[in-house]
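chain below, 191 aa
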Amino acid sequence: MAAIVESSDDAIYGWALDGTINSWNNGAAKLFGYHAEEMVGRSFSVLMTPGQEAEAKRRLESVRRGERVEPFQSERMRKDGSAVEVSVTIAAVRNRNGDVVGGATIARDITGWRQADEALRSSEERTRRIITTARDAFVGMDDAGVITDWNHSAEVAFGWSREEAIGKPLAETIRVRLRRSDARRPVADRA
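prediction:
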């Protein structure tokens, strides 16, 4: 188990019930910039950004009571003073009798994920604006041919509102449109 913890890219550190760090892996050294010698014996509060004291105290009390702490996202402070966005998992550490004697934290840098997520949302919003305002009919569909998107120009071209079209098979909307168009043509033109 120690080999897995030490080789993990995630920051993994153990601490006593007073918050004093008693183990620090290489992943923690990479993420936070502190070597194990600098952190073992110090309080994990050195990693907290300003204003996080109450949050840390609340979670520490939950661990002391043996309660489950839900994974969460937060910021932590690096040695150089910069903040890093992390996904945090905390678990109680128990002795052989089942008594809580400390805790363990796993922190994963999610800065890249957050940036990628923001870029994706921004790209999706730009795409949505382009589709919504396009003069050409835009019809999106899934692998089964069911309509998933329908812009205003498609409403005009096919005669279906967005609400009517979404969720219907594309083939059905086109067949109905062709029948509607055919019915409007003079009988002599249909031959």
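The chain is about 45% helix and 25% strand. The mean pLDDT is 85.
thats it, cya
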